[in-house]
């Protein structure tokens, strides 16, 4: 079904420290092989905040020799999220800065409240985005605009984020402060009836195909399609269509 991973470091605005990264990595690792998982939603349990980025108080105490390995761990953890075989949705109901936005960029789909604030602000600190931001942002909104946002460390709201293609859906925030999460749940519910094997290989085909030329991409699509042909779900889909009933997919 739908799995929700909620960030909850309220005293630190969900800032990413060593401990939180370790917990995130462990949670993502458990989801990789769980065939019952169909969609994962990343959200915050802290009102007004998605994730404020790296924990700068912890960073200030690090020796310069430790910083590189911490950033590598953050990058690896976010890559693990990006490589989850099922659809992932970031529900951004509050501020997502630096590593927080990089976390959201690693998700397949982003939904945000109009009041949410997003930006890769690392250049203000004389560093650069180090957990995928310099690579995923231009792939999402285009090279020139990504450079502009990173060079200026600009923060955009949900409406502007939607207009530049940073997010897929923008919603007005509600009194509970979870409008983006509710929209993400509605999206995830739309995904549930589809064939689980098909969803996994569709994601694989798109992700791999986007990194290569069209001819190679079409070959990847062919190989991925071939994985669906021998499945029981494919036969069930045809049978359900013939019998005019909803299919009962088992991911086999």
UniProtKB/TrEMBL annotation:
GO terms for molecular function: enoyl-CoA hydratase activity; RNA binding. It is found in: Mitochondrion. SUPFAM superfamilies: ClpP/crotonase. GO terms for biological process: fatty acid beta-oxidation. It comes from the Eukaryota. Pfam families: ECH_1. CDD domains: crotonase-like. Gene3D superfamilies: 2-enoyl-CoA Hydratase, Chain A, domain 1, Lyase 2-enoyl-coa Hydratase, Chain A, domain 2. GO terms for cellular component: mitochondrion. Keywords: Acetylation, Lyase, Mitochondrion, Transit peptide. Belongs to the enoyl-CoA hydratase/isomerase family. PANTHER family: ENOYL-COA HYDRATASE-RELATED (PTHR11941), METHYLGLUTACONYL-COA HYDRATASE, MITOCHONDRIAL (PTHR11941:SF12). This is AUHM protein.
